[in-house]
Amino acid sequence: MGNDTIVAISTALGQGAISIVRLSGEEAIEIVNKSFKGVNLENVKSHTIHYGHIVYNNKNIDEVMISVFKAPKSFTTEDIIEINCHGGIFVANKILEIMLINGARSANPGEFTERAFLNGRIDLTQAEAVMEIIEAKSDMSLTLANEGLDGVIYKLITDLRSNLINIIANIEVNIDYPEYDDVLELSNNVLKPEIEKLISKIEDILEKAHYGKIIKDGIKTAIIGRPNVGKSSILNALLREDKAIVTEILGTTRDIVEGNVNIGGIILNLIDTAGIRESNDLVEKIGINKAKTAINEAELILFVLDNNQALTNEDKKLLELTKSKKRIVIINKKDLNKELTHSFNNSVAISALHKTGIEDLENLIRHMFLSGEINLSDQTYVSNTRHIAKLSESLVALKESIQAIHSEMPVDMVEIDLKNAWMLLGEIIGDTSTTSLLDELFRKFCLGK
Q1: pLDDT tens by residue, 241-287
Q2: Hey, what CATH class is 218-369 in?
Q3: Is the Cβ–Cβ distance between 144 and 377 less than 8 Å?
Q4: What is the separation of C-alpha 132 from the centre of its chain, rounded to a whole number of angstroms?
Q5: pTM greater than the 0.70 cutoff
Q6: How far is it, in rounded angstroms, from Cα 99 to Cα 20?
Q7: What residues are paired with 9 via a beta bridge?
Q8: Hey, which CATH number is domain 139-214+384-443, 3.40.50.300, 3.40.50.720, 1.10.10.10, 1.20.120.430?
Q9: What dihedral do alpha carbons 128, 130, 135, 136 form, nearest 10°?
Q10: 3-state SS of the chain: helix, strand, coil percent to 5?
């Protein structure tokens, strides 16, 4: 990253009340000043806002409010200027063009947040949390993202690394002073219990990560069944809108229809599939093949049966096809005469037509995936896929260190696995420097050592 000043439109392009053109860098104030008719921005205090006009070639372009955030107390720790202009597409782009002419460079995607990270304003988990806030689809996922932005994940990881450093420091003392401790006693009575505590902590975090992932990303859900059992009607009932075409003609749904629905904080990424049956229709065959692919990829199967029809061979094939999946059997058309006599685990009777039983279905889904109450205020739920992967890798490294102890390997071999775990955890927060490891390690020694 250089010392150049970047600029971008920070609001979505389109017609609206306002748009914001943002600049960050050493020359941000100077660049805006060149085209601002109002107070001299060089002389104003930080965190103030000023009325005036953006002008170009002695012509007023727009009436604006200029927000000034001076270094280092800004998002990027650099001088930041935000030009609040009217929300037309043309005017925002025109102001952007003027700033580029005045000497700014067009920012790359995410570059403002990248500068905040590189300048030490936020750690990597907080940078990722910015995007997670933008992409949040429910109150619970927004709460998780805000915890990340507040540094909760950072503290969780730094606490784990601090515990690791204490263990590594014990090894370093033994290497420097081999007579200080018996090696077997050090390994079995000092290192092993502390490593096992760390393993237990990370396993607990990863177990809870299952819930965090569901809250953040939702559940990929396939609605399957024979043609005309009411799959599309159920999709519409869950979505509270008529997104899928519903008719009594077999094979109406010929492709995948998708939608998202929020069930008590859980997002279902719904896929309404074509009815699975033998067919000579080429288009319908393609839809059926897509449906089978959706079944393989789905985390939850909503298998729909018609209460007014006995179980068919096609139903039995679908039951067999989905038996290893998390599955809810939906008995639709419960308002009609009952012909279906079979009973199923995890089943619910509904009428998609009359919108009855939908709440029972939603409660069953919630219970199946979030058994027990989720208390976001008391627990830390890791939900980022990258964080989960690095925690899993660090867990493997810690378990390898335990194996090294069991094999009575030299303590410096045990230390290699522990340092690997420390570095893997550091990758979560963006700290991968060997210098950082040495700094943390030597802080554990007494003054004058």
Answers
A1: 554 333 343 444 434 456 778 876 788 888 766 555 454 554 445 55
A2: alpha beta
A3: no
A4: 5
A5: no
A6: 13
A7: 21
A8: 1.20.120.430
A9: 100
A10: 45, 20, 35
